[in-house]
Amino acid sequence: MPSVAIVGAGISGLATAFFLRQLRPDLKLTVLEKGAEPGGGKVRSSRRDGFTFDWGPNGFLTNAPETLALADALGLSDALLPASRAAGRRYLFRDGALKPLPTSPLAFLRSDLVSPTSKVRALLEPLLARREEREESVYRFLERHFGVGVARAFADPLVVGITAGDASELSVDALFPHFRAIEREHGSLVRGLIAAQRRSRREGGPRTHLASFRNGGIQRLIDALTSELDASLRLGAGVIALERSGPSGYLLRVEGGGEVRAERVVLAVPAFTAARLLEPHLPEAARQLAAIPYTSVQVFGLGFDQTELPRPLDGFGFLTPRGQGVRSRGVLWSSSVFPDQAPEGKVMVRVIAGGTADPDFTELSTDEALTEVRRDLEVTMGITAAPSHLEMVRWRRGIPQYLLGHQERLRQLEATLTSLPGVVLTGNAYRGVGLNDCVRDAGRVATALSQL
Ligand code: FAD
Q1: Which one of 101, 236, 264, 385 has the largest count of C-beta atoms within 10 Å of its C-beta?
Q2: Does any ligand 1 atom lie closer than 6 A to the CB of residue 10?
Q3: Is the per-residue pLDDT at 312 higher than 80?
């Protein structure tokens, strides 16, 4: 019986296994996960005292079909929970105040986040925009289209919520390929976005919103996948070596003894782990993989009594660009977005700190980090009360950064990997960091392997 081993049971590895099982039920499938619990990856939620705390992602966007379709295939459609309407309102903390992020041209004109001159420059985008073939940073792309004022105000917030990275280092081509596609088709982003809006209205496409699951948060996706894959999943099975076995197979050595043989191997682990496993076979590919940088973030879940809040949590929360005197990069008003994430009369606030702007944050002790976060909540929202509920997770090297050159790196990797037939890479380090991206790539890999 042909066999496939998948290393890593985050959403990427689990979704690959699930799709492969659907396409080829006859394959012998083994999923090896280092962690002792199902869902050792970033998609995880804990429930305690009526609070739900998402350790990593709090949901996925419904403007792409992948995760929605996966949820449907797993029988989770009835449990889908769209974000509340209030979640459409987002803020920036700038110049000592929370300011609404404009969501329409009129709101943009009224906003004090950019100067009148910068607004005029931005409005000229449909006339001034030009196509550009060279790879650019997110910052440079926005600056070229909308002018320096808009780039300064919005480039950082645009990327912080996705990668906690630096807009002047990240590749727009790798991180936002749809922006580049719009530019290629329309020249102007504004014209392209208006055309897309009209098309979606005409064709009645799905409304874009954030979605999670009731009674358990985003972890339900992982729970459903792990229960489907039950017998194929081996927990506490960190892979320490990949060796060739026979003319066309592989042998995986597992921490603490044990081995698994397979004809095909999917590495659904962070790029630096894939680098270690590939080093003896393909040193050049290993070098390319090890060069994908990761940033560390720390996530806090803080529960408060509603009466302790000086202002209503009337939205999704806020982001803080660099240089605003606070260390928290994003504060999500989780129980306003998904009201079932806090018990009656309480609220859940999720704070994300660290990232490339503040690499030392994750080295603080828990007490020091909490002091910083509480100070930030006081400065930004006026909260002085101590949280009655507290959760915290540190993601060291948690989020990959798609620097300029990322796509060229991928091309080289693909070419080098052909000399190790049957070994495939998937995961958030390559073709998108969002859940939809990971699920899409899992589908691509499963389809390719199903030809076995
Ligand atoms: P991982 O989740 O990292 O899984 C890799 C797995 O491999 C882990 O289970 C690990 O234990 C295992 N492993 C590692 N080494 C070995 C080994 N040697 N042997 C066996 N197993 C091994 N995305 C969204 O779409 N929406 C969001 O709101 C969002 N928010 C986020 C917030 C945070 C704080 C973070 C960190 C990420 C967020 N993301 C979000 C991104 C998204 O969650 C991740 O990109 C995605 O979950 C990554 O999945 P993965 O399976 O590729 O990697």
Answers
A1: 264
A2: yes
A3: yes
Distance 37 CA to ligand 1 centre (A): 14
Q: Tokens 């943009």 identify what position?
A: 108
Backbone angles phi and psi of 331, in degrees to 5: -125, 115
Q: Is 277 touching ligand 1 by the criterion CB < 6 Å? A: no
- Residue 32 corresponds to which tokens in the numbers above? 């090896």
pLDDT above 90 (res 247): no
First to last CA, the chain: 11
pTM of the model: 0.96
| Percent of the chain whose predicted confidence (pLDDT) is above 70 | 99
Is the confidence at residue 365, as pLDDT, over 90? yes
Q: Is the CB of 299 under 6 A from ligand 1?
A: yes
Q: CA 277 from chain center: how many Å?
A: 24
Helix 66-73 to helix 11-23 angle (10° resolution) is: 60
Taking the CA of residue 269 as centre, how many other CA atoms within 13 Å lie in the half-sphere pointing to its CB?
26
Task: Give me the pLDDT at residue 217, please.
Answer: 95
Q: Computed over its alpha carbons, how large is the radius of gyration of the chain? A: 23
- Report the 10 Å Cβ neighbour count for 133: 8
In the prediction, which pLDDT does 53 show? 97
Q: Which atom of ligand 1 is nearest to the CA of 276?
A: 18
Cα 191 from chain centroid (whole Å): 28
The three-class DSSP label of residue 449 is helix
Other CB atoms within a 10 A radius of the CB of residue 132 amount to 15
45 in contact with ligand 1, CB cutoff 6 A: no
Residue 205: pLDDT above 70? no
pLDDT for residue 158:
94
CA 176-182-185 angle, to 5 degrees, is 145
| One-letter amino acid of 344 | E
For 385-447, the three-class secondary structure string (H helix, E strand, C coil) is: CCCCEEEEEEEEEEEECCECCHHHHHHHHHHHHCCCCCEEECCCCCCCCCHHHHHHHHHHHHH
- The answer, yes or no, to whether any atom of ligand 1 lies below 6 A from the CB of 40, is yes
The C-alpha atoms of residue 144 and residue 136 are separated, in whole angstroms, by 10
Report in angstroms the alpha-carbon separations of 214 from 58, 211, 220, 300, 374: 12, 10, 9, 21, 29
Q: What is the largest CA-CA distance in the chain?
A: 69
pLDDT at residue 209 tops 90: no
